[in-house]
Amino acid sequence: MACDSREAVIHDTSPITLKRLRAYTTLIAVCIWTILAVDFSVEGPIDRLGKVKGTDFLHFYVTGSLARDGRWDQLYDVRAQYARAQAVAPASPDTLFIPIESPQTALLVAPLAARHYEAALVVWLAIIILLYAGSCAVMWRDCRALRDHRYLVVASCIAFPGLYSVVLHGQLSSLGLACVAAALFALRRGWRFTAGLALGLLVFKPHWVAAAAAVFLAAREWRVVAGTLVCAAGQLAATCVVVGSRVMAAYWQALRSLPRIAAFLEPRPSDSLRGLFTLLMPSDALAVALYGMAAIATLVVASGIWRSRAPIEVRYSAAVLALVLISPHVGAYDLVLLAPIYFLLSNWLARSADITHRPALSGLLCASFIAPICGGLPAMFRMQLTVGTMVGLLFVLWHSVNDRGLVGACALTAAV
């Protein structure tokens, strides 16, 4: 998952070499996981910093306990959920979650709610890590040029700050990554409808499935879009059968309230184009308008790359970058969805000697890799490293395929 640097191996003056990448990824992995281990080493549900261990998992655990007890009437009741949360972690009175999670999430976590919170958290984190490891293994399987760099790939996967954020917050993003990795696996084999089915599973986070559908709609991948819509509709229908129409109506009302409570859900701007303009613009209306224009521009660029004759590594990386950039809400833990671009673009760099803008691409990959742990930069520079590097990567990919005369093709290549 780290940026390969053939060019750097040839030119000793390059700051990016395989030896340095191995050292840096090892150092990052040791540091971040040691910090987490020390933070979690105290007994009880509260960590050394006074926060709930697993943070967001407490919310999932509470909704799962409501589902297990059949108390669907309380699934979107703030007071009822706060009371349950305090019963689980009474030492965190300032922890208040606004209930907007899908009923699917409650059903998913319900079996774990039979366990004590800490035991349930251990199982949950194990599932998160296994989903991440499985996704990485599936993607690595098709990256033949990376097979000779086993240590670097494994160290990079472990050191990826996106995974650290997922584990720290106990979030669902690893499941989202599994859907994206499954879609890539299917697209490599020309199974476009199946790829859409995999992306449709993202409907447990509606903004993700909407972003994925928008990207492939702009790319005119009708079979992918059809599969996405079919799977999303099927998941929602099945959920409605299990939980009932009243719960789904309450869920819909919770989603409709999001624009009014956005400030409470995002105390700091998210790692997306919307978050960038929220940070830069003095007016919310102006920020939304600029975000809309930037999202359209992103879709145009990404669809142009997708419909070109560029390698699948470039095309799918552009699609993933666009998916994250245009999503209205992206937390640090959601950046784990960027994992495919490190596999894909590193594989492309490793097997192709004639890539234009190689130094810029390698540098941006390394910068975007560490971006999730640079959360203090926006306050100092009014610029998010995560968004800046993603935009930079998309721009470099566009120029790379354009310089080689690959953009503007009328049809996709027959085989990816």
Summarize, please:
The chain is mostly helical. The protein has 21 helices and no strands.
C-alpha-based Rg, rounded = 21 Å
**Overall pLDDT metric:** 84
The general outline is globular
Number of strands: 0
Helix content: 55-70%
The parts where pLDDT drops under 50 for at least 5 residues are 2-13, 407-416
Portion in strands: under 5%
The separation of the N and C termini measures 21 Å
Give the count of helical stretches: 21
What would you call the structural class? Answer: mainly alpha
What is the H/E order? Answer: HHHHHHHHHHHHHHHHHHHHH
Describe this structure as you would to a colleague.
This protein is an all-alpha fold and 416 residues long. 67% of the residues lie in helices and 0% in strands. It contains 21 helices and no strands. The chain has helices at residues 6-10, 18-39, 56-68, 78-88, 103-109, 117-141, 150-159, 161-169, 173-188, 192-200, 206-218, 222-243, 245-256, 258-265, 273-280, 284-306, 312-326, 339-351, 358-370, 377-381, 385-403. It is globular. Mean pLDDT is 84; it is low at 2-13 and 407-416.
Could you name the key traits of this structure?
416 residues; mainly alpha; 21 helices; 0% strand; globular; disordered N terminus
What is the fold's blueprint, element by element?
Elements: H1 6-10, H2 18-39, H3 56-68, H4 78-88, H5 103-109, H6 117-141, H7 150-159, H8 161-169, H9 173-188, H10 192-200, H11 206-218, H12 222-243, H13 245-256, H14 258-265, H15 273-280, H16 284-306, H17 312-326, H18 339-351, H19 358-370, H20 377-381, H21 385-403
